[in-house]
Inverse folding.
């Protein structure tokens, strides 16, 4: 691939590599500040017209290069080094020095706490040695690690351990071999001292796989859930997709310093400890859920990602969209499918829709990239998963499986494209997906406008659907998409008929007629969030009510209730000092509270107000202050109106001793919602109740529910509970992240000086991404009042911080800027304040490529 002057890479510029590397031997002499890396590659020229070999490399100290054993000189290039006039086939040996201790970008080889570890996706391997750092170059690896034995009793790399031994001066070594050819982004090593949990898994063909989980010393008791989750994921993938694990050993290492969630390195996953460690006292139900889903995600990559990988990074969604879809299916099978789905829909509406309408809009298969790390996005991951889900909807469960079987059989061992995937789906099902492919190349969120009429005389329901995608920052012209539109016809009385089906919307406008509908009916559209689209549809209150009461699908009922509440909030935001709860909401809440015991988690979701972010996405422009205020007013009215109900329901929901088990999880979820309303009641009684709930709690879920409720309402009780909490947990960094986040999210006139205090806290460190996210991430993403202060001081605060963080860890800095570049819906005044800060960044001379790409697009 060539890079143009601006440093932008284009999908259309892809060319296959002129060289292949069949085998790679790597030797690491691990030292804190000076690790010596020796790389020996077996290289073959594929394109005879090519005389030079260009290798990628970054922040390396080159010691020497040998071609077929003869020392050679090289030229340094912008990307790395160039070897001129290389033979058709040769052995290349390169020696480099790297500095793991001072690597705070956490890409390549770095130290997390006391341990050496690596992160090579997407382009971290070039920080380890000069190499063809691209996913379509696949080699077999042999890796020798040499390190001090006392500090690093464990020496780990991909594949199988084939030899080990002692070395001089208290050092020892280990030799690993991975029999599966892989791209360099899947390479990993770990050296350090850990506690280890062992287990085994017997695969469907009877192979015994050793499972090993490595955690910080003293954390063994917190590793059980991750290991159990791994075994569930392994069994599920066999049963659901016929995919079996392929090595004799599967290792997972938890580290504290990690830029993202986790990494699927072949046979040696490296995880952010947040997605591994859990026990009742320190982890919430949400943490347990996340661990199960991330463990599964990385495991599922073994087939969708590792055995079949991406041809180039524009194809990232090939493995990420598909693997997210697979982990979503898994989660739905492990817990309540409807609740899992509701939470995915929220992510799409809160974050992906915002990305799609902002300056970083891109298709799930981007066509232009400046910094690849910026494209590990909600669009590539979550919208990518929605696109796979639509294929699943269009082809059906067994058709999708046929397509998967074809894909795996055809491409095992290859580096392929998104198009290859769709082709396999198409061929296995003899279905024309040519129009569907547009989802891969078109960005933006389609809006489906709905016109629905029931005609009494003809006993007919006519449904007219129109699709439109507005231009996005990256693409001005949009075309109609192939959209599966789930619908459910519901009679206003709740009687028959009930009709559910999926319509295939392929034109800009289509009309559907349903016959034999004798009684007044309405239709719910886009049921189950059947496509990543927005709706332009305002059913009458009575129609929404009918859907809430009578629709067969839980997600559809939830969606309708959220719409009813949203409309009330929007109405409130247009009037001043609304004091009356609308009749429709009275009836809705009365009804929901009445049936709370039947489906506690679903009712909890329905009782909760749509988030500020979700509300914003439903409007062209927002009056931020009015919207926040309206949401608060409505919440307070609901709290007061149903005060007795919240209290009574809360009392009924208490659990026995904690276990992460579905019925308990659902009860805790609902009891947390009750608390959030009770905290709005300014009464001694409710304060007492919150205090007691805190004292009584034997688990982190209930404890955090109390703290969140107090925080959201800014109760003085919050401070005293938080002090107690800090005293209990000050030595536990994962729990302290929750404490930091609670403080950083608090809407408070002094929120900026609060942030300063947090960053001066002894447990805070700018070098640790989890800490940074819990303080600055929470502030920028969720402390809406504080971040969007009218005087612009919130924006300035974030910008000052980004200037500092960018020189430490550009990847994390570029994530934190997200809320500041999505400003188009805000008022002119705030937009101006934001642009001032973006200009400051833009003019900064040493801004990273990560931030530069975003800032430049936002201006
Ligand atoms: N492939 C990993 C996952 O989805 C994410 C790694 C991304 N790393 C990065 N530096 N962008 O689990
Ligand atoms: Zn992934």
């Amino acid at each position: 691939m060539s890079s143009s002057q601006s440093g932008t890479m284009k999908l259309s510029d892809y060319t296959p590599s002129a060289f292949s590397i069949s085998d790679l031997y790597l030797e690491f002499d691990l030292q804190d500040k000076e690790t010596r890396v020796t790389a020996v590659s077996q290289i073959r020229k594929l394109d005879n017209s090519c005389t030079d070999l260009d290798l990628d490399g970054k922040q390396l100290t080159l010691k020497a290069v040998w071609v077929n054993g003869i020392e050679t000189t090289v030229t340094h290039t912008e990307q790395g080094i160039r070897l001129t006039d290389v033979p058709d086939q040769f052995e290349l040996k390169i020696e480099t020095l790297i500095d793991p201790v001072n690597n705070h970008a956490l890409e390549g080889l770095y130290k997390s706490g006391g341990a050496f570890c690596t992160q090579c996706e997407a382009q971290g391997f070039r920080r380890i040695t000069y190499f063809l750092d691209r996913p379509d170059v696949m080699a077999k690896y042999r890796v020798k690690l040499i390190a001090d034995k006392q500090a690093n009793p464990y020496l780990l790399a991909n594949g199988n351990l084939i030899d080990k031994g002692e070395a001089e001066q208290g050092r020892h070594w280990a030799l690993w071999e991975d029999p599966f050819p892989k791209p360099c982004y899947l390479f990993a090593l770990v050296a350090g001292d850990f506690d280890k949990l062992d287990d085994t898994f017997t695969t469907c063909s009877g192979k015994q796989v050793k499972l090993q989980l490595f955690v910080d010393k003293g954390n063994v008791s917190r590793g059980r859930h991750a290991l159990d989750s791994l075994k569930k994921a392994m069994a599920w993938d066999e049963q659901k997709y016929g995919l079996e694990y392929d090595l004799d050993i599967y290792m997972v290492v938890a580290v504290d310093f990690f830029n993202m969630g986790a990494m699927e390195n072949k046979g040696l996953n490296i995880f952010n400890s947040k997605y591994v460690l859990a026990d009742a006292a320190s982890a919430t139900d949400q943490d347990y859920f996340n661990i199960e889903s991330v463990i599964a995600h990385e495991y599922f990559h073994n087939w969708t990602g590792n055995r079949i990988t991406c041809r180039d990074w524009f194809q990232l969604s090939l493995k990420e969209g598909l693997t997210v879809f697979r982990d979503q299916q898994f989660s739905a099978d492990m817990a309540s499918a409807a609740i899992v789905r509701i939470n995915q829909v929220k992510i799409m509406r809160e974050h992906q829709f915002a990305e799609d309408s902002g300056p970083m809009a891109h298709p799930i298969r981007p066509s232009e990239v400046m910094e690849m790390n910026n494209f590990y996005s909600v669009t590539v991951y979550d919208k990518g998963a929605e696109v796979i889900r639509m294929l699943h909807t269009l082809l059906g469960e067994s058709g999708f499986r046929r397509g998967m079987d074809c894909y795996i059989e055809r491409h095992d061992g290859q580096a392929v494209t998104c198009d290859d995937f769709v082709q396999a789906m198409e061929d296995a099902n003899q279905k024309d997906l040519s129009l569907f492919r547009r989802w891969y190349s078109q960005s933006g969120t389609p809006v489906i406008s709905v016109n629905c009429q029931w005609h009494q005389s003809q006993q007919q329901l006519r449904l007219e659907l129109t699709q439109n995608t507005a231009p996005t920052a990256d693409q001005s012209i949009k075309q109609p998409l192939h959209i599966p539109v789930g619908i459910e016809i519901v009679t206003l009385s709740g009687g028959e008929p009930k009709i559910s089906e999926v319509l295939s919307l392929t034109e800009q406008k289509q009309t559907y007629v349903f016959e034999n509908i004798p009684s007044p009916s309405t239709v719910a559209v886009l049921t189950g969030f059947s496509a990543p689209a927005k709706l332009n549809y305002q059913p009458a209150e009575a129609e929404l009510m009918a859907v809430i009461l009578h629709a067969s699908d839980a997600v559809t009922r939830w969606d309708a209730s959220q719409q009813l509440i949203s409309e009330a909030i929007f109405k409130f935001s247009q009037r001043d000092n609304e004091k009356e709860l609308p009749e429709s909401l009275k009836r809705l809440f009365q009804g929901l509270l009445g049936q709370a015991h039947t489906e506690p988690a679903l009712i909890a979701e329905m009782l909760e107000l749509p988030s500020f972010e979700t509300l914003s996405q439903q409007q062209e422009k927002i009056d931020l202050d009015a919207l926040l205020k309206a949401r608060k007013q409505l919440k307070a009215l609901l709290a007061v109106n149903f005060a007795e109900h919240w209290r009574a329901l809360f009392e009924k929901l208490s659990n026995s001793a904690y276990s992460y088990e579905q019925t308990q999880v659902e009860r805790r979820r609902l009891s947390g919602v009750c608390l959030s309303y009770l905290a709005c009641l300014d009464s001694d009684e409710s304060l007492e109740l919150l205090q007691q709930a805190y004292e009584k709690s034997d688990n982190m879920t209930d404890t955090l529910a109390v703290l969140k409720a107090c925080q959201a309402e800014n109760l003085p009780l919050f401070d005293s509970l938080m002090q107690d909490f800090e005293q209990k947990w000050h030595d536990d960094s994962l729990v302290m992240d929750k404490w930091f986040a609670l403080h950083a999210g608090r809407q408070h006139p002094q929120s900026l000086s609060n942030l300063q205090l947090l960053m001066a806290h002894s447990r805070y460190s700018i070098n640790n991404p989890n800490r940074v996210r819990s303080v600055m991430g929470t502030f920028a993403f969720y402390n809406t009042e504080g971040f969007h202060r009218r005087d612009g001081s919130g924006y300035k605060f974030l910008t000052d911080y980004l200037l500092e963080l960018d020189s430490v860890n550009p990847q994390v800095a570029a994530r934190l800027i997200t809320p500041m570049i999505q400003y188009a819906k805000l008022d002119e005044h705030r937009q101006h304040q934001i642009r001032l800060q973006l200009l400051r960044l833009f003019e900064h001379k040493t801004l990273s490529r990560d931030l530069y790409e975003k800032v430049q697009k936002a201006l």
User: Anything to note?
Assistant: The chain is about 40% helix and 20% strand. The radius of gyration is 28 Å. The pocket of arginine (ligand 1) is lined by residues 119, 121-122, 259-264, 297-298, 320, 373, 376, 811 (CB under 6 Å). The first helix runs from residue 224 to 241.
